[in-house]
Amino acid sequence: MKKFEIAAIPGDGIGKEVVPVSLHVLNTIEELHGGLKFDFKEFPWSCDYYLEHGKMMPEDGLETLKSFDAIILGAIGNPELVPDHVSLWGLLIKIRRELEQSINIRPAKFFKGLQSPLVNPKDFDLIVVRENSEGEYSEVGGRIHRGEDEVVIQNAVFTRKGTERAMRYAFELAKKRRGHVASATKSNGIIHSMPFWDEVFNDVRADYPDIQTASYHIDALAAFFVSRPQIFDVIVASNLFGDILTDVGGAIMGSIGIAPAANINLNGKYPSMFEPVHGSAPDIFGKGIANPIGQIWTAKMMLDHFGEIELGRKLLDVVEDATNDGFKTPDIGGKASTIEVGDEICRRLKRL
Ligand code: NAD
Ligand code: IPM
Ligand code: MN
To answer: What Pfam families does this protein's entry cite (predicted)?
Structure first.
């Protein structure tokens, strides 16, 4: 019997609607499998928690999380009540950094049953490896003047270690896929960090002579995601470029509500965190119409992480088949509710 202790943080907004659905799916898998056991412990850390306690999680929150095998997170953010930089740096970004989840992997592919907005939605299947701990997301900088001459400086921080780590991960992943890595750069405009990024990319690729490579400026690359996504296999990107690209990845599949992600701790010291690409979607929260597929596909990435590859594949097949048969939330052109889609997926899993 394989037993996993999992911390679940639904967070804010639709995180509270889609996380329970993904736990329902995982409980169904557990019932059917026999050899797997998930123990979930839920934590209410969120903007509501902040309003009550003045912080996003307790002082020992990170210590508590360290004892789990994985973390499932919905989304954080209720900007009407708590400024985003306070809530996100107080919980999501803090966990990513302190638990050394240095890589964020975010796939996008042609998804059965979805109306992609692409003019020619030929099969595409790509994965973005996003550097997840440094780059443009940095605390270095500050306000150096106020008033009429107000100046704010935000420094980007790129270490050789962090940059190389993301790139090596991308090359190793490409070895198991179609053998191609594209680098997202902007060395024509950003004169320190991006020429450095290119330099590290050149150094790393020399160690992988069998992998084909290409380098694109991020602006052109974003356009190619829309006009010819089928040319990509693995894309390695800095923290911010990877963030932006992966919302585009969701959109070309048909909705950012289906896009999955995994924050991976590579050194095995701490748990990895499974959290979809989308946010707390305050505009649809409470209506029961959030698409649960992003969170469910993210759970599939957790199964992969636990070595349950075949189970993960079956789960994704079931989700695609249910979508193809019309069980869809409004963002992808359907009328079903969050819970109805989840229930249908569980029903189909039981029929396997
Ligand atoms: P968002 O992803 O929450 O929403 C963007 C648009 O996509 C909205 O119209 C929303 O309704 C739609 N959408 C998103 N997920 C959906 C789903 N599952 N089903 C159907 N439609 C969906 O991005 P935003 O509006 O920029 O951010 C809202 C809040 O979420 C902010 O506080 C932001 O900081 C936060 N955020 C958190 C995370 C996270 O915790 N991982 C990620 C992104 C944004
Ligand atoms: C994401 C989100 C976060 C990020 C925000 C909410 C800080 O957009 O996970 O994609 O930029 O990493
Ligand atoms: Mn994002």
So the answer is: Iso_dh
